[in-house]
Amino acid sequence: EAKSCVDLSIRRRDIEKSNDKSCNPDNFAILRALLLKLEKKIAEVPIESRELGFTRPGPYIYELLAELNVTNDTADMLIGIIEEAVLLLEEDGNGTEHKGSDGTSSRLETMGDILRLLFKDGGISHAKYYRVHVQER
């Protein structure tokens, strides 16, 4: 989806010859790179037992994201770019190709929701109420 946003924003910029910064392809390229790095980090998580998976206390997610420079200081900017991306996808063919087959949210929209939850109220105090779990498929 992030790759689609890069392509759409370039096409829109070329067609409209606009200097509109709200759909900057560079932002979507950075978002795509960040998501690929996150995917790689998750794939590198050492899963010792296929049955048990990998589980850590909730604050671990902040350590993982901090390695990608996603912190309380940067989360709002990232969420803003994700919101722009979701809007761009929705404007392009109503976003139908980017929604789940059952009409559910796009994966980018879900990622934005996760980040809003993680960084709500600018703190991590709520992290003690959950755990991070990675399971092999």
From TrEMBL:
Residues 4-136 form the Rtel1 helicase ARCH domain. InterPro entries: Rtel1_ARCH. The keyword Nucleus does not apply. One of its GO terms (molecular function) is DNA helicase activity. It holds the Pfam family ARCH_RTEL1. Its EC number is 3.6.4.12. Keywords: ATP-binding, Helicase, Hydrolase, Nucleotide-binding. Signal peptide: none annotated. It comes from the Eukaryota. It is an enzyme of class 3 (hydrolase). This is DNA helicase. It comes from Opuntia streptacantha (Prickly pear cactus).
